[in-house]
Amino acid sequence: MNVSSTHLFREASQAADAVRLQLRTNRERMEKLGERLRRLAPRAVVTLARGSSDHAATFAKYLIETRLGILTSSAAPSVSSVYAAKADLRGTVFIAISQSGASPDLLAAVANARTAGALIIALVNVESSPLAKAADYTIALCAGPEQSVAATKSYITSLAALIHLVAFWAEDEELLDALSEAPAQLEKAWGLDWQSAVAQLRPARDLYVVGRGLGLGVAQEAALKLKETCGLHAEALSAAELRHGPMALVNPGFPVLIFAQNDETHRGVEALAAELAERGARVLLAGATAPNSIVLATESSHPAIQPLLIIQSFYRMVNALSLARGFDPDHPPHLRKVTETV
After folding, report:
1. What are phi and psi for residue 306, nearest 5 degrees?
2. In angstroms, what CA-CA distances link 148 with 71, 209, 305?
3. Share of the chain above pLDDT 70, in %
4. Among 120, 125, 233, 302, which lies 20 to 30 A Cα-Cα from 29?
5. Is 66 exposed, middle or buried (0-12, 13-18, 19+ CB in 10 A)?
6. Collapsing DSSP states into helix, strand and coil, what is residue 313?
7. Which residues on neighbouring strands pair with residue 255, listed in sequence order?
8. How confident is the model at residue 79 (pLDDT cuts 50, 70, 90)?
9. Residues in CB range of 16: below 8 A, 6 or more apart
10. Strand order in the sheet with 255-259
11. Helix, strand, or coil here: 281?
12. 240: buried, middle or exposed (CB in 10 Å: 19+, 13-18, 0-12)?
């Protein structure tokens, strides 16, 4: 199979156009929603998602807490769908993120959140889905169909939609301007050469994928893709958490893929990369430089946009890595596109 013949390759390459369409489609809706959220002045934000969408929710936590100063926490769907427990969500915003909008546990949690007094916002790709109909506000991801089991453009459009929402909510013109440049930057990021990562990771069995702050969600996403498309045991970690117990596994030759964005976390992530390389780890570093590390080319941008660009370059690499390891990236074993958990 040729690297460019997979659904994953074709769909990931469409992310820039999907974000362009999303920004055009949602601008007026986002502006009105931003005004509503400023009037509401919520005491907290609760996110709800699974899989890749939950990694977007990790990004949302850091984005909302750093840009708006509002406590943001992830809901456990089973609290509603299995335990049938009730929460007091008055004065909160409940953001549900889903490609399909069809999973029963997410729908149960949204129904409970509405009863508990939350304002429901759905970020969803299938606009006719039950989740879209259950929300007070629906934000279209505009990713279009995805045939590969591994989500790519729907993940990137989820991040873009979160940035769009927060930029209008915070009235952050700098962030809005940066987001307007993201489609062109995504195209450039797609063309970057990460073949050195393919060569290093092809023989691997285990690795860490590391990020911090706004970059942690894309580290989680990359680890998931390495598991499902490449058969690799990949664990996502915060750069801060790696310094605790997980450091014990970092022996000579152990691969570590590190993502860095140019914000307050940058210096610490570079220092960690240097320390790991000194221990003999095979350090693959995107968004920074460090001695004895393999530096992966990245597009520079606003710190909130950089994670989108890094994961876009990663998607092209992981497609090639999957094929190099003898896998079909479109059809991971034991998985299907829509997972309906309860």
Report:
1. -55, -40
2. 35, 23, 25
3. 97
4. 302
5. middle
6. helix
7. 282
8. confident
9. 182, 183, 184, 186, 187, 190
10. 233-238, 206-211, 255-259, 282-286, 294-296
11. coil
12. middle
